Amino acid sequence: MLEIKDLHVSVDGNEILKGINLSVGTGEVHAIMGPNGSGKSTLSYILSGKDGYDVTAGSVTYEGKDLLEMETDERACEGIFLAFQYPVEIPGVNNTYFLKAAVNAKRKYQGLEELDAMGFMKLMKEKMPIVEMKQDLLTRSVNVGFSGGEKKRNEIFQMAVLEPKLALLDETDSGLDIDALRIVANGVNSLRNEERSMVVVTHYQRLLDYIEPDFVHVLSDGKIIKSGDKSLALELEDKGYSWLDKSA
Amino acid sequence: MSQANQELHELAKKEYEHGFVTDIESDTLPPGLDEDTVRAISARKKEPQWMLDWRLEAFAKWQEMTPPKWPYLDLPEIDFQSISYYSAPKKPEDGPKSLDEVDPKLIETYNKLGIPLEEQKLLAGVTEATDVAVDAVFDSVSVKTTYSERLAEDGIIFCSLSEAIHDHPDLIKQYMASVVPVTDNFFAALNCAVFTDGSFVYIPKGVRCPMELSTYFRINAQNTGQFERTLIIAEEGSYVSYLEGCTAPQRDENQLHAAVVELVAMKDAEIKYSTVQNWYPGDETGKGGIYNFVTKRAECRGDNSKVSWTQVETGSAITWKYPSCVLKGDNSTGEFYSVALSSLSQQADTGTKMIHLGKNTSSTIVAKGVSAMKGQNAYRGLVHIGKSADGARNYTQCDSLLLGDTCGAHTFPYMEVKNPTAQVEHEATTSKIGDDQLFYCQQRGISEEDAVSMIVNGFCKEVFKELPMEFAVEAQKLLSVSLEGAVG
Amino acid sequence: MSEVIEHYVSEHASLKDVLPGNDLSWLNESRDAALQQLSTQGFPTLRAEDWKYTSIRPIEKRQFKLAQEVGHSVDATSINGYLYKDLDCHLMVFVDGRFSAPLSNLGDLARGITIKDLSTALREDSDVLKTHLCSAADMTRNGFAAMNAAFMSDGAFIELDKNCVVDLPIHLMFLSTGQHEELTSQSRILILAGDNSQAKIIESYHAQQDSVYFNNITTEVKLGRNANLEHYKVQEESKKAFHVATLQVDQQRDSTFTSHSVSLGAQLARNDINSWMGDEGATCNLYGLYVADGRQHTDFHTRIDHAKPHCSSNEYYKGILDGHSRAVFNGQVHVHPDAQKSDAQQANNNLLLSKDAEIDTKPQLEIYADDVTAAHGATVGQLDENMMFYLRSRGIDYNSAHALLVYGFAHSVIEKMSLAPLRKHLESALVSRIPNAGQFSDMVED
């Protein structure tokens, strides 16, 4: 599904990613761990197409297409979803309206008929229980005045509604208390299936107690320095990142 | 330049949707302005002597006045002698009585403007079609006033000002210039001397006007100044909602428009006045475009009266207007809701004056300015709480949204408070559409163009919700069109 | 030329040979140019946008004379009453606008700091003054600025070398004696703060008697990179006096300027406070409080220029107006085209306590850059009814509750001051000024 080869990325002339190789198969869940500043968020941004990141070498292939050639919204319509570390507030834009616009943009892209208000409400009602989404959050402006937990829940709710093929979860657990973490993680787990791949970027192992990854990669200073299965995460939690730096 | 800006500039080159010239022969006065011009206008309109005298007096006063020089407003020199002050379609007397009789070119014009078929039918007098009465002012003369008869059943007078001068001289004498004095300002005085036509509305005591009254103004003939005058009188306990919408064909020469609108609300009366203005804004370099100098003022004369101004201003090279309320009656209410978009090289200088004189008067101001490209947007407002205005309340909110890095937003909110029981609150913010917001929307699959339009509409929605339904839709469409031309 | 301007022109001619620095040709040229400016421009009228609400007719009606000599009847003990209790400081005293060496006490000055009166500075540091004097303050701004530039008869020069941190505040005390009729003083203060320097400077204005006089002051401040200056101004002039002052600040990269300006006295007080943030990372905080009653007129005009990116400004002004008083606040923030990432916040809140008081306020934003966070707010009103109710439900009577809330309203400005002795003085001043607040005098912190 996703093939990253020798990816080098710079921001303002500073190389952040220094040769990433990663292959994500259909239905797989990959966790990417690493200390702050290792390039984790850069990886999610480059995959979703944020401005300001320069690819200096390497390639990213998504379902056989050159991902780096696609516009941000094109990627989204092709099924890539980024759950933001810091969801953006958009004053004046109703959350429901926003999501309807997103759903219909994607349906239009896929050549499907756009959903009308009734059809969309039905879809919302269906998805709301996944993250115990509160009704009033839907009628408010996008993320405005939401608590940290509500914002993250809103991200996963959007993911549920947009049904991506590849979900990138960027530090979805950071800033969440344990109850909120459980709700969000349960939401994510309920969205796991054989067709949907996920890349879970996190600093903390605790998220992986809830979302069990098939693979764990450790990112440090712009490179994946170790890969393994779930046990690698536990080992990391035990020994800290410095353990790997030394052994690497 | 960010990607957003780039796209913005590319899209800006899209042509003005309403730019076209209708080829109808016009009965036009040669350019120039002197006493004879004033006499000629009055003569063409077959006005009574008192009206001519009034005009001449105004003209004499205007000659002693000078155009305003305000900080941060760049007014070009206007050669008042190069403008023609009267232009009427060929058939002013016997206006069309059915759709077939209407000049097809005119119908075509309205089609291009997107005036709904229903309203076009009204031009032909198909009265049962809709609840909207249109007094279409094509250039300067009222082509056709519709629905008058049905309105007349309730005692409502809705006609062109010219007709009113002939048919209701007492009302005109009593009310005209009673809200905006002849010498109020340079452009108002000019209007008094040379006004060509406009609308007159009279709602008798206790009558709730059964439909929205609306007028479309258009500027058409080359080099023709447009000098509308509107007078609305709402007697005790009455209600009226009035809609005004404008578009104009594209042309190179700047066109002058100096209108005066006067509203009078008596005890317990309410007037709602909504405007969508989309005249030709000129091009990217500032060439062409309408100069729009409007004096709009309402007097809440009676207790518990209410006037609400709502405006969406997207057109004109220069917009200079401050719909105001003089709150004389106790417990009277004034409202001002405004969206002003300035793009290309437009200047929008707009705002309101709320003059609180009566007790427990209240006013609300919500002004939203959107600036893009080289547009300059200024909010200029005054809240005045007089000594006698015990318990007066004002809330002002004025927000600016900036798109691109060559535009500007300015606020000049004057607050004068002479009464200790007043509560006056003013809040203002300035923000931009952030790259992070656009990225977030795009990541959800929404194109940049749609994202900008969505955010801007969200920014303006407090104002849109004040518009009558059909106008709100049009306003949103207009904003999107203007943004296509200016943003992306 | 009006009669009053003619008076000042002839006054200038007669004083020319005794004004400080009269042997410096550059200064004489500058004074002449300023006088020329004054005679062509005159004093501002209500037609000028910046003076729309403030009539200076009462100043124009009088022909003030410049004090020629130091009033010797003022002795050290009479100064004590104007010192701030428990405030160790470097003290400069000016009597009727003239520097008094005997009354001043500069104490031990740290290395790297220069404090001098204007005459001395013009003798000893004329090169520095030539470069900097009149360079920040624009003498064409209005007739008063021009008048000060033409006459500047005394004042202070404070220079901080690079990295100089002054521990003790510098207190410039201006005392009007009222011993002569209708005097004017035209003081000039120049503050040069080098890179990374840090200081706190107080200007205070007092009167011995309730007399008529006219203080016209210009303070110029230049902050080097990363310099940090706290400027305090406490204006407690006589209720018959006229006080016109300009504070002009020029800020370099990463510098921080904080102004606390409290206006309590004078019949007519006008303060212009302007800061130019000419390089990135600068911060400008302007805090102010004005309290007026009787027929007092107080006017604050501020202008902050964000000329470069990443600068931030905070403005917070409060006013309490009683009697027939009138206040004007005009807060202009100008964000220039280059100044992306500017952050400009402003608030102006006013309490009207009497039916005859009046406030005219205009928060004015002019934004020419697009990536800006700017907000301003202004309110005019009364005390919060819920708060009143809450206090009264606890058994506090109406007048006391009212006084307490007014005090609290004003205190939120004072509490931003870092100098505790000054804070305390102002708390006492407020308590004595606010009706029915005397009973709370024990609330003032010790």
Describe this structure in words.
The complex is a heterotrimer of chains A (248), B (488) and C (446). Chain A has 248 residues and is α/β, with parallel strands linked by helices. Helices cover 39% and strands 29% of the residues of chain A. Chain A is built from 10 helices and 12 strands. In chain A, the strands form 3 sheets. Chain A has a 6-stranded mixed β-sheet with strand order 6-9-10-3-11-12, sandwiched between helices. Chain A is globular. Chain B has 488 residues and is of the alpha/beta class. Chain B has one domain. Chain B is 26% helix and 35% strand. Chain B contains 12 helices and 23 strands. In chain B, the strands form 3 sheets. A 10-stranded mixed β-sheet of chain B has the order 4-3-7-9-11-13-16-19-21-23. In chain B, strands 12-14-17-20-18-15 form a 6-stranded parallel beta barrel. A two-stranded antiparallel ribbon of chain B has the order 1-2. The relative contact order of chain B is 0.11. Chain C has a domain of 64 residues. Chain C contains 10 helices and 20 strands. In chain C, strands 1, 4, 5, 7, 9, 11, 13, 15, 17 and 19 form a 10-stranded mixed β-sheet that branches. A 10-stranded mixed β-sheet of chain C has the order 3-2-6-8-10-12-14-16-18-20, with helices on one face. In chain C, helix 2 packs antiparallel against helix 7, helix 8 packs across helix 9 and helix 9 runs antiparallel to helix 10. The longest helix of chain C is centred in the first third of the chain and has 17 residues. The N and C termini of chain C lie far apart (55 Å). The mean pLDDT of chain C is 91. Chains in contact: A-B, B-C. At the A-B interface, helix 2, strand 7 and helix 3 of A face helix 10 and helix 11 of B. Strand 22 of chain B pairs antiparallel with strand 19 of chain C.
